[in-house]
């Protein structure tokens, strides 16, 4: 019933009450996009499903759907970008956890993919998830007659995971070990490592709207840029204040994080500034953008 209500009239219930329907929709679509674990190669398929379907906040798909609400995009047009971006996110998390990267044994409270399976299988699972994300966009039936839309979505996602996106941000993150960066350098690293995929979530939904204006795209890009930096600063604050902080990989490797470099109070002030910038960019969208406003506030105020 709630899924039908969201599809018919999102404004009839507050955005937090619509989240379960969007999460249900996301999980169903992800399950359909991922390969059947009963088919060969079974171990690879099982690892892909383990990495993607093992929980998480699904922030990126929720941003896709919230942006679609703000612009009046039909929810059916949003499923492919929501799924593709979450597959790409899972790809990046597998790589982040590998011994050659952050060397983390746990992800979302359970063994990381390379620990649950093995390192080679984890690498192959990530390698398979990345092209699958593009396949989802290229083969979406709802856009079969709109190759221009598909091209924009594929280009946007490719940019988000390349040298000016996730890969570049991770390279900067690795290079930051034992170094003291200034604020601009830290925020640039965050913009690439975290922000580019959030930007693809917001702009991907916008590109599903025929005739979306450049002005609106620019304002949404401002929103996504502020959100991406703030999200990573908030992550760093939560890790910095965690009881087991001294044993975290960031501390052990002496990585350049916002609170470690500049202190907790400046980090909190910066997230407040970024929240103000994100919210101000939505002023012209009215009540339809309340979902995006809620997502921005949640990002800054979450406790995990």
Task: Give structural notes.
- This protein is mainly alpha-helical and 304 residues long.
- The chain has a single domain, classed as Farnesyl Diphosphate Synthase (Orthogonal Bundle), CATH 1.10.600.10.
- It is 68% helix and 1% strand.
- Helix 3 packs across helix 7, helix 4 packs antiparallel against helix 5 and helix 4 crosses helix 10.
CATH H-level homologous superfamily name:
Farnesyl Diphosphate Synthase
- Under the CATH scheme, the architecture is Orthogonal Bundle
Residue stretches low in confidence (pLDDT < 50, at least 5 long) are 1-8
Q: Assign the CATH class.
A: Mainly Alpha
Mean pLDDT: 91
The main sheet comes to: 2 strands, antiparallel
Radius of gyration: 19 Å
CATH topology-level name? Farnesyl Diphosphate Synthase
- Percent strand equals under 5%
- Count of individual helical segments: 15
Strand order of the largest sheet: 1-2
Q: Which outline best applies?
A: globular
Sequence of secondary-structure elements: HHHHHEEHHHHHHHHHH
Distance between the termini: 30 Å
Number of strands: 2
Share of residues in helices: 55-70%
Please, how many domains? 1
Helix/strand/pairing category? mainly alpha
SSE layout and pairing:
Layout: H1 2-8, H2 15-33, H3 42-52, H4 59-71, H5 79-97, E1 106-107, E2 110-111, H6 113-116, H7 119-138, H8 147-161, H9 166-175, H10 183-207, H11 214-240, H12 249-252, H13 258-262, H14 264-280, H15 290-301
Antiparallel strand pairs: 1-2
């Amino acid at each position: 019933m709630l899924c039908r209500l969201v599809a018919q009239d999102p404004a009839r219930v507050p955005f937090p009450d619509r989240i379960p329907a969007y999460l249900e929709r996301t999980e169903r679509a992800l399950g359909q996009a991922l390969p059947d674990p009963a088919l060969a190669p079974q171990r690879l398929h099982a690892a892909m499903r383990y990495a993607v379907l093992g929980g998480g906040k699904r922030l990126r798909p929720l941003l896709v759907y919230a942006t679609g609400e703000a612009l009046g995009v039909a929810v059916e047009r949003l499923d492919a970008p929501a799924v593709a971006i979450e597959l790409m996110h899972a790809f990046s998390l597998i790589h982040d956890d590998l011994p050659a990267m952050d060397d983390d044994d746990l992800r979302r409270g359970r063994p990381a993919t390379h620990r649950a399976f093995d390192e080679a299988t984890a690498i192959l699972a990530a390698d398979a998830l990345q092209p699958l994300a593009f396949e989802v966009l290229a083969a979406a039936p709802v856009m079969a007659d709109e190759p221009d839309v598909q091209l924009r979505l594929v280009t946007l996602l490719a940019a988000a995971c390349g040298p000016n996106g996730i890969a570049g941000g991770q390279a900067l993150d690795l290079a930051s070990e034992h170094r003291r960066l200034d604020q601009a350098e830290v925020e640039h690293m965050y913009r690439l490592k975290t922000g580019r995929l959030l930007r693809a979530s917001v702009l991907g939904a916008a590109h599903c709207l025929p005739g979306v204006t450049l002005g609106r795209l620019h304002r949404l890009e401002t929103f996504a840029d502020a959100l991406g930096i703030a999200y990573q600063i908030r992550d760093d604050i939560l890790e910095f204040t965690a009881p087991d902080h001294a044993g975290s990989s960031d501390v052990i490797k002496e990585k350049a994080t916002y609170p470690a470099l500049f202190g907790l109070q400046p980090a909190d002030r910066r997230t407040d500034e970024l929240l103000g910038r994100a919210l101000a960019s939505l002023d012209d969208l009215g009540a339809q953008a309340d979902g995006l406003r809620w997502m921005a506030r949640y990002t800054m105020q979450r406790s995990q």
